[in-house]
Amino acid sequence: MCDMNKAWLFNQGKNYQSYRMLGARPDISPQGEQGYRFAVWAPRAVSVSVTGDFNGWDPVADLLNPYGTTGIWQGFVAGAVQWQRYKYAVQAQSGQITLKADPFARHAETRPGTASILYDADEDYEWGDGEFTSNRCDARQAGPLNIYEVHLGSWRRYADGNVFSYREIAHQLADYCVDMGYNAVELMPLMEYPLDASWGYQVTGYFAATSRYGTPADLKYLIDILHRSGLRVILDWVPSHFPKDDFALALFDGEPLFEEPDTRKGEHKGWGTLAFNYSLMEVRSFLLSSAWFWVDEFHADGLRFDAVSSMIFLNFGRPEAELNHNGTYENLEAIDFLKATTSLLREHFPHCILAAEESSAYPDVTTPVSEGGLGFTHKWNMGWMNDTLSYMESDYYARGQFHDKITFTMMYAFEENFILPFSHDEVVHGKKSLLGRMPGDYWRQFASLRACFMYQMSHPGAKLNFMGNEFAPYLEWRFYEQLEWFMLQYPRHREMHDFVKQLNHFYLSRPAFWEIERSWDGFHWLDADDRENSIFSYARCGHDDNEIIVVILNMTPAPYDTYRIYVPKKGRYKLVLSSDATCYGGSGFGGSNLQETTYTSTQDELNDNGPDKPETTEHNSHTENSSRGLPWIELPVPPLSGMYLLYDGDTLQ
Predict the structure, then answer these.
(1) Cβ contact 436:474 at 8 Å
(2) Whole-angstrom Cα distance, residue 539 to residue 527?
(3) What residues are paired with 40 via a beta bridge?
(4) How far apart are CA 348 and CA 343, in angstroms?
(5) Is 604 a catalytic residue?
(6) Which pLDDT score, from 0 to 100, does residue 604 have?
(7) Do domains 146-441+463-491+502-513 and 520-647 have the same CATH topology?
(8) Residue whose C-alpha is closest to residue 244's, from 231, 233, 258
(9) Domain at 146-441+463-491+502-513, CATH class
């Protein structure tokens, strides 16, 4: 039975657990009959009934009753049991009756079926992740965040092409991620959706785990196993749009209800989908409840909000859009909704990562709402991704012309709390794989991609890589089959896999790469200006004065027998990782195989005429401070490579 207080909160946009009131739940009638109680919001419907396996799909057998003026219809069906299918028969003002899936259903038929399925979610799973969840820190707290983005249906499959269930894939995925050095998994949308080709981004069941891989309890098992392995779980969530399928949310009571009625801002024509009506309070309750549901009942450690730019701008993909009353193109209702959502989740689930896929220059995305921001904890750095891939795609001889694409990112690197993504969107049909984007012959492509990964891992910001990137497939990602794991039998791909594993674990172990992400205290250019040679050098620093890693990136195939790098502190610098090591498929130039090689700095003597410059150095770094007596080291620099040198103490100590 609905509670009037909860119904009132739902109407006011403040019921963030409305799934406990609406939908289908097991119950007992006053006469002691067991069955299910149904409740659905359809305020302009003439009548609503529930039809399903329990009544032979008779649309008039079980009529629901309106609950006051709340717009909610409710009723009890004796004899209904778990796993039976059902829909609502909604009669519109026009007289037309449409069978609708339950917006609050906990389970649904596997496509192509579209019915909802009765499910008892109370005590359907006994969690074993208590130690993990009790130790979760605030999502804004500094720490390494290395995310493995996964499309569950195409990570691995059986030999016959069938997908693994949530339970069958759980230990495989957990063990692989731990071994590879990831500490978080982002799962592409697992909320029920009808079309495989949408990859889950056109949701029809905002409270139902997709039945493609099993039951809701099975998904809880997967998340539980990932947690027990120490992995955070981020779920993709889509509050930005939904499909037009007539069995789902579209025109739910015969007229626009969940969708914005103004077609100028209620449709994403480029996607063929509808935008939510963020000004309608019941829609806000619906979406707030969905976000709460996945974090609370499924123990999610984070939500990645899809397509945020399409929410906050009225003219996103809509050249005909009109200005708001402030004279801008901001969708004020959507912005208010986003702030309400992030505020709610930050207050009750401070551990929850709230990541915005937001591609514009909209300010303060990761600034707390109390300080005027949108309240997300992280933002995908789409600018960094686009500039980096544009640079890496350029011919080696021309990279000097695109030098600023690497250096420009530091102009805004500290404005938000960023995630650096090489996501599924960058390896889909028509875009090539990451390896396929690299120019040159086979060797140069692999070397260039290793250098690119060295750059990503050492740049300020959390990291995200889509599954498969770690072994450099040539083919783009295809959602309908598993990754090309057979490529690991070939040396170059196995070497790349080993390299990424080593790089990931190095990142997790070095505070210099993640302790200070939002200020220049954690990043120092050593040379941002060697456009001629396309060599970049910088230092990453931790809170400990001696936690320093010098990064050298050579982005062309030209090797250097001797190259001078000015360093932030005098002393010894130990080579701890080189992408040019032969064990990773590199050339081994200049001793890059010899991990732990140490270079000792030299200090220029200052005099009235400036520092003495040794004539033996073939190439110097070009930092503007190089003439002021900074310490420097000289070392060989391999072709198309990244090098990490760890500060190893003062030579006088």
Answers:
(1) yes
(2) 10
(3) 73
(4) 9
(5) no
(6) 66
(7) no
(8) 258
(9) alpha beta
Low-confidence ranges of the chain (pLDDT < 70): 1, 592, 595, 604-629, 651-653
What is the reported pTM? 0.94
Residue 142 has a pLDDT of: 87
Which of 76, 80, 85, 88 has its CA nearest to residue 48? Answer: 88
Q: What is the pLDDT of residues 357-406, one digit of tens each?
A: 999 999 999 999 999 999 999 999 999 999 999 999 999 999 999 999 99
Q: From the candidates 357, 517, 547, 604, give the one annotated as an active-site residue.
A: 357
Phi-psi sector, 440: left (phi>0), alpha (psi -120 to 50), beta: left
In which residue are the tokens 């208010």 written? Answer: 336
Task: Give the DSSP letter of residue 577.
Answer: E
Residues 6+ apart with CB under 8 A from 198: 243
Q: Where do the H-state alpha helices sit in 398-556?
A: 404-407, 434-437, 442-458, 491-509
At residue 378, the 3 state secondary structure works out as: strand
CB-CB contact of 316 with 309 (8 Å): yes
Distance CA 218, CA 323 (A): 46
Q: Where are the beta strands (DSSP E) in 531-615?
A: 535-541, 548-554, 560-566, 572-578, 598-600, 602-603
DSSP string, 191-211: EE-S-GGGTT-S-SEEEEE-G
CATH number corresponding to 4-117: 2.60.40.10
In the block, which residue shows the tokens 């993640």?
Answer: 514
CA-CA distances (angstroms) from residue 248 to 101, 123, 287, 306? Answer: 6, 28, 15, 20
pLDDT score of 618:
44
Per-residue model confidence as pLDDT tens digits over 271-291: 999 999 999 999 999 999 999
Cβ-based neighbour number of residue 274 at 10 Å: 22
Sign of CA dihedral 267, 273, 276, 282: positive
| Architecture of the CATH domain 520-647 | Sandwich (2.60)
Helix (H, G, I), strand (E, B) or coil at 224: helix
Quick one: CA dihedral 156, 161, 165, 168, positive or negative? negative
Can you point out the beta strands (E) in 145-183?
Answer: 146-150
Name the catalytic one among 129, 224, 236, 306. Answer: 306
Assigned token pair, 148: 């493995």
Residue extents of the structural domains in the chain: 4-117, 146-441+463-491+502-513, 520-647
The residues, any chain, with a CB within 8 Å of residue 559's CB and separated by 6 or more, are 587, 589, 590, 636, 637, 638, 639
Q: Which residues lie across from 465 on neighbouring strands?
A: 148, 422
Phi, psi at 635, each rounded to 5°:
-160, 160
530/575 Cα distance (integer angstroms): 22
53 given a catalytic annotation: no
DSSP-assigned letters across all residues of 89-127: EEE-TTS-EEEE--TT-S-BPPTT---EE----TT----
Please measure the distance between the N-terminal and C-terminal CA atoms of the chain and give it in whole angstroms. Answer: 75
